[in-house]
Structures are given as structure tokens and as C-alpha cells.
Design goal:
Elements: H1 3-8, H2 19-24, H3 29-41, H4 43-54, E1 65-66, E2 74-75, E3 80-81, H5 83-87, E4 100-105, E5 111-115, H6 116-132, E6 140-144, H7 149-161, E7 164-167, H8 174-184, E8 188-192, E9 195-197, E10 200-202, H9 204-211, E11 222-226, E12 240-242, H10 243-247, E13 259-260, E14 264-270, E15 278-283, H11 285-298, E16 306-309, H12 316-328, E17 332-336, H13 347-355, E18 359-362, H14 364-373, H15 376-379, E19 388-392, H16 398-408, E20 415-418, E21 452-455, E22 469-473, E23 483-484, H17 488-495, E24 504-512, E25 518-523, E26 527-530, E27 533-536, H18 537-545, E28 550-560, E29 564-573, H19 582-596, E30 605-609, H20 622-629, E31 633-634, H21 645-649, E32 653-654
Parallel strand pairs: 4-17, 6-7, 6-8, 8-11, 11-12, 16-17, 16-18, 18-19, 19-20, 29-30, 31-32
Antiparallel strand pairs: 1-2, 3-13, 4-5, 9-10, 14-15, 15-23, 21-22, 22-24, 24-25, 26-27, 28-29
Bound molecules: 5'-O-[(S)-ethoxy(hydroxy)phosphoryl]adenosine.
């Protein structure tokens, strides 16, 4: 994909599991081998045993996997449980009720701790408030909040009642929020007056008001508003209610009714190759089982750990590894509200030392950003509480891996590079910290029960070591997505159609080396990975074309030192705007993308052009644009290009 991959092609260092780590690991080499064997020999029994062992059921399941409507798979479908009973109530016995569930730190430094008993109480009260406001099982509730403990409370309160939450990342625009409110037909929105980010207030409520402006276009009846920044906001009579008012007088007793295993737990939007983001939805029991197990296996969580996943709850990583996985394990979670380098670049390291954080899970883009700030920032702090490090979101370049390993992990902490997706619910390919030796830049081996394959265009397994191909999963697993909200055809089309429903197609390419280790190379579709976040080129293009001066636009990714990939846009102006000031237009287009999607999608590079390279059938030749954007020589076959003159115009170095 970029430099990261170039250097990982020659990477062959191997870091053995430290013996003292292996000796205390949740999963030992023997247990791992046993699980692998059982999964291969009798997958249904394998999953059934894990589901019995790790979850509390109100009604035991008899059916493990129902494939009658494949690829719409159903897991444990005649069983019943409540997700929040498994995340909260079952930890309320004895002393564990007084264990910290959540330690939260605000950007300004204030700290709040909620024990399991307190979190349970807040969730129960807020669930009663939701009932009081008319929310029922199956209703969709949107959550557009800062990284505060109330965001977790809101998610769990929905789950307690069986309302389906859809969390919208606070960095997304009013327009993006509006799309999601419409697509889910949400009846309620939970938001805040604002969010703190880098010392500034992000006007969440203002965005929410804008999203809700045209009443006939959405079904939101109620907006619950948390006071966070104290910003001056409008409260709409009859629609908006303060969080404090909503919870006032509500009982702290709220039963956790049994839900069917397959009742949807949440919807989360993610970019695909075409059109608007897809609403991926997950089940209750299968999802919970998989997040719980992978948290236990990959992070080796122990009762005494203080665990910090730095993701925002607006992403799948925040759902699976800030909320559901760790709470199901009864862990202590640390949560931080604000910007990573605020007020200065050692904020993370200072908090790790002060809270005694032992397990840290973050993104390669963050590691690269910290690396760039210099070794002196982590060196100022005692990071000896750390015992395990994790990464997610994009391939980790070996250079950043080594820095993370040495400067943050002190050379003693295993690094788990976890490959997975919004759709997979939890980790799929990752080293087990007590079992698997690590190679910098590789996500190592599939987890027990996960049948990853690399296949060619025909769907045949690629035999030779290091040969690239499509990364696919052959057998269903409990944590898999259950569909695309309101659009079953898109589920088939996006994930299954390519190989006739034989495999789940992840959309990534990968290779496997002679030791069976997986090296993910990047997306094969028109999806960019900017700072570990998926962005569809089609979405950014349509945001650009929505500007009155723009006739056509094409977006490609270019390598970026910190973000991994950055957005490069080629823009054709309408005839009457050809003479407009290009700097001003560039600035206006960046604002346009920020307003329609969010700042993460803002192009780094905008190039105005008179033509785009197209095939005779009118398809934009993105591979050519990618080479041009990177300043590389165009070596591709351009026999299908309609007008070869376009290349010269774009300043391509034609060296064929
Ligand atoms: C990429 C994030 C390499 C990949 C959990 C995938 C990775 C997409 C890794 C999913 C990794 C995620 N190594 N690439 N360890 N983890 N990816 O849905 O391209 O936001 O398809 O889920 O991120 O992104 P998503």
C-alpha cells in the first residue's frame, strides 16, 4: 500500500514470547493447540462450549449455528440473554461490585471513577429514563456524544432495554448525522451541548439541531442533552430535554429482560466502495461472545489490569474494546476524553504513569505521531506499569512497531497487532501474547475458530508463500455482522457475491509467509484508510461535486507519514468557474468536505485539472491517478484509456 508495506516485505525479525509472560497467560500454547484442534474437528461443539462457559443465559440455546438462510447466518438463535446482565449484573457479587469498572479522565484533568455497582446503577436509571421517554425494544436510538462516561451509560441503557443504538462519531458533520438518523429511522437522539477537543468546544448540539432541521425528513421525537461544555445552546420546547431532567426521579431498579440471541444490539456505519456508508448491524449473543473471548485472548486481561483502549466509542473499536468486551470480562477500563497531545505531547504517557495502566491498545497512526514528537516525551515518565501493547486499524510499519516496542513497551511488552473490521465484530487475526512470536508489521495468525484464507480471482486458495490475494473467511463465526441495515442485497453484494457466497470477502488483500503469518497489504476496493479510519472515495467525491463550481472529481489515496494514507482529489471545474481563484476554491472545497462528512475526510492535496483518465466505457482509471498523485512513473497498461493526452495534462511521467 505504501512505505509501510515496502519495508515489511523485507522484514524478518522474530520476537519470541517472553517466558514470564507465557507462564501467566490466559491462553497457553497447549490450550491454544487444543482450541485449534477442537475448532477444526467439531466447530459447532467448539462454539457451543465457549458460549456456555463464558456467557450467562436466561434460556439455554439448543441450536448452535443456523445456516438455513446462508449467508444470513444465525447463532444460538433459540437462546436468550441480556447483554448488560453479562456486562454488569453478573459482576455485582461480593467485593467485585466495588471494583472500578470505568476510570474516566476529562481533557482538563478531572477524574471520575465508577465502580461496577455505580455503573450498574447509572445504566439502570438511564434505562428507566429512556422507557419514560417512550423508547421501546427494537427502537433505534442515535448517540452523538463526546468521550464521556455518559456515552457508555447511554449505550448500555439501550442494550438493557433491547433498543438498538447507533453511535455517530462526534467528529462527523451534521450532514453525516442526518444521513444516519434517516437511514435508521431513529426515534431518539442522545447528545451533549458540546465536546472538549484540544481546549476548544466542538458544537455537538448545534450540529444536531442542523441535522434535525427538516422535521419531515427524520423520525426523532426526543433529544436528550448532556451538559458538558456549558456552551450556550438552543433547547427546542417539546423536543429537547436535559440529561439531568430526564434521569431525575427515575428508579435505580431496572430489570434486564431476556433478549433473543439474534436481537440486533447496534448499527454502526462504515464506508464501502460505492454510495453512502453502510449500516452494519450486530447481534446480541454472538457479538458479545466474540468480543469477550478476543478481549481475554488477545489482551490477556486479568482482574488487576487497568486497561486502556484509546478509540472513540464512535468506532467499532470503541464498541468492542472500550465497552462490550472488557465489561463482559469484568475489567477496569480507562477512558480519556480529549485530544492525544493536549496540552502537550506527553499526555498519554503521563496518564499511563498516573493511573498505572497495564494494557494499552491504540492505532499505528497515533504511534507514528508520537514517534515524530521524539523519544524525550515518553522518557519523562515511568511506563513500567505497562505489560502488553496492542494496535489496530492499519498495517503497522516495522519502524513504528520497533519504536512502540522499545520506547513505550521498554522491550518487555508483547505487541498484539490485531486485524479485524467493523463487520467482523472482534479480532480475527492476531498474535496470542502468551503463545505467538511476533514479526513487526504482521498480524500473525488467525484466532481459534477463524478460517482465514488467501484466494485468487477465481476463489482458489493461493498456495505459494508470499503470494498476494483476497483475504477471505471460509466459515461463519459468532461475531460476524448480521447484515446491512434495511438493505439485504447490499450485504450479499458487498461481502459474499464475489465468490458466490463461498466466503466472507473482507475487501483487503494479504499475503501469508512461509511460517503462515499474515501480512495485510490494504484495501482492494475504493476505500481509503486515513489514520485508521475507512473513507469511501465515492463519498468524498460526491461531497466535492456538491460544490457549485465543481463539474467532476476523483479521489485517491497518497502515502502520508503519519496518517498512513491521505486524501488527494483531482477536480474539474465547471466552464464558468475556470477563471476562479484556485487557492480560494481549494479552501472552500476543504470546508465543503468537512461540512458534508467531517474533518477526517478533508483532502490534503487538491489538484485542478481539465480532464480525468477514463476508459472507453467512462470509468475513471484510479490506478493511473494513484501513480500520478504519488509522482510515480506510469507503468500501467493504458490501452483502455480513452484519451492518452489526458496523462500529459495531468503531468504524468510516462515512462512506459
Ligand atoms: C484495516 C477497524 C492491517 C483493514 C477495526 C480493514 C488493518 C479495515 C488492521 C477495517 C491491521 C484494521 N493490519 N490492516 N491490524 N486492522 N485494518 O472497519 O483494511 O474501521 O479492512 O475496523 O482496517 O476498518 P474498520
Amino acid at each position: 500500500m505504501n512505505n509501510a508495506i515496502d519495508s515489511s516485505l523485507t522484514e524478518n525479525r522474530l520476537f519470541a514470547v517472553p517466558a514470564d509472560f507465557a507462564a501467566q497467560a490466559n491462553l497457553t500454547a497447549n490450550e491454544f493447540a487444543e482450541l485449534q484442534q477442537k475448532a477444526a474437528h467439531d466447530p459447532q461443539q467448539f462454539w457451543a462450549d465457549l458460549a456456555h462457559q463464558h456467557l450467562d443465559w436466561d434460556t439455554e440455546f439448543k441450536t448452535v449455528l443456523d445456516s438455513s438462510d446462508a449467508p444470513f447466518y444465525r447463532w444460538f438463535s433459540d437462546g436468550k440473554l441480556n447483554v448488560t446482565h453479562n456486562c454488569l449484573d453478573r459482576h455485582l457479587h461480593d467485593a467485585q461490585r466495588h471494583k472500578a469498572a470505568l476510570i474516566w479522565e476529562g481533557e482538563a484533568g478531572e477524574v471520575r471513577t465508577l465502580t461496577y455497582a455505580q455503573l450498574h446503577r447509572e445504566v439502570s436509571i438511564f434505562a428507566n429514563a429512556l422507557i419514560h421517554q417512550g423508547v421501546k425494544k427494537g427502537d433505534r436510538v442515535a448517540i452523538y456524544m463526546p468521550m464521556v462516561s455518559e456515552a457508555v451509560v447511554a449505550m448500555l441503557a439501550c442494550a438493557r432495554l433491547g433498543a438498538i443504538h447507533t453511535v455517530v462519531f462526534g467528529g462527523f458533520s451534521a450532514e453525516a448525522l442526518k444521513d444516519r438518523l434517516e437511514d435508521t429511522s431513529a426515534v431518539m437522539l442522545i447528545t451533549a451541548d458540546g465536546a472538549w477537543r484540544g481546549g476548544k468546544k466542538v458544537p455537538l448540539k448545534q450540529h444536531a439541531d442542523q441535522a434535525l432541521l427538516r422535521e419531515h425528513e427524520h423520525s426523532v421525537k426526543r433529544v436528550i442533552v448532556l451538559r458538558r461544555t456549558g456552551a450556550d445552546i438552543d433547547m427546542q420546547e417539546g423536543r429537547d430535554i436535559w440529561w439531568e431532567e430526564a434521569v431525575s426521579g427515575q428508579s435505580a431498579v431496572c430489570p434486564a429482560p431476556p433478549m433473543a440471541a439474534e436481537d440486533p444490539l447496534f448499527i454502526l456505519y462504515t464506508s464501502g466502495s460505492t454510495g453512502k456508508p453502510k449500516g452494519v448491524f450486530h447481534s446480541s449473543a454472538g457479538y458479545l461472545l466474540w468480543t469477550m473471548l478476543t478481549t481475554r485472548w488477545a489482551f490477556d486481561l486479568k482482574p488487576e489490569d487497568v486497561y486502556w483502549c484509546t478509540a472513540d466509542v464512535g468506532w467499532i473499536t470503541g464498541h468492542s474494546y472500550v465497552v462490550y468486551g472488557p465489561l463482559a470480562n469484568g475489567a477496569t477500563i480507562f477512558m480519556y476524553e480529549g485530544a492525544p497531545m493536549y496540552p502537550q505531547p506527553d499526555r498519554f504517557w503521563e496518564m499511563i504513569a498516573r493511573h498505572g495502566i497495564s494494557v494499552l491498545y491504540t492505532a499505528p497512526t497515533a504511534v507514528r505521531a508520537f514517534m515524530k514528537m521524539g523519544d524525550e516525551w515518553p522518557a519523562r515518565h515511568d511506563l513500567s506499569s505497562l505489560r502488553l501493547l496492542g494496535t489496530v486499524g492499519e498495517p503497522m510499519n516495522p519502524e513504528a512497531w520497533m519504536w512502540y516496542f522499545q520506547q513505550i513497551g521498554g522491550g518487555r511488552c508483547p505487541i498484539v497487532d490485531t486485524w479485524w473490521q467493523t463487520e467482523t465484530g472482534g479480532h480475527m487475526i492476531a498474535p496470542l501474547p502468551g503463545v505467538t512470536a511476533s514479526k513487526p508489521g504482521s498480524c500473525a495468525l488467525p484466532l481459534p475458530g477463524i478460517s482465514a484464507r488467501i484466494v485468487d480471482d477465481q476463489g482458489d486458495p493461493v498456495g505459494a508463500p508470499d503470494a498476494g490475494g483476497y483475504l477471505v473467511i471460509e466459515q461463519p463465526w459468532p461475531g460476524m455482522l448480521r447484515g446491512v441495515w434495511g438493505n439485504p442485497e447490499r450485504y450479499i453484494e458487498s461481502y459474499w457475491a464475489k465468490f458466490n457466497n463461498r466466503y466472507y470477502v473482507a475487501g483487503d488483500s494479504a499475503r501469508r509467509d512461509q511460517d503462515g503469518y499474515y501480512w495485510v497489504m490494504g484495501r482492494i476496493d475504493d476505500v481509503l484508510n486515513v489514520s485508521g479510519h475507512r473513507l469511501g472515495t465515492a463519498e468524498i467525491e460526491s461531497a466535492l461535486v456538491a460544490h457549485p463550481a465543481v463539474a467532476e472529481a476523483a479521489v485517491v489515496g497518497i502515502p502520508h507519514e503519519i496518517k498512513g494514507e491521505a486524501v488527494c482529489a483531482f477536480v474539474i471545474l465547471k466552464h464558468q468557474h475556470q477563471g476562479d481563484d484556485r487557492d480560494e476554491l481549494g479552501a472552500a472545497l476543504r470546508v465543503q468536505v468537512t461540512e458534508l462528512i467531517g474533518a477526517i475526510a478533508r483532502p490534503d492535496d487538491i489538484r485542478f485539472t481539465d480532464a480525468l483518465p477514463k476508459t472507453r466505457s467512462g470509468k475513471i482509471m484510479r490506478r493511473l491517478l494513484r501513480s500520478i498523485a504519488r509522482g510515480e512513473d506510469v507503468t500501467q497498461d493504458i490501452s483502455t484509456l480513452e484519451d492518452a493526452g489526458t496523462l500529459q495534462q495531468l503531468g504524468a511521467q510516462d515512462k512506459r
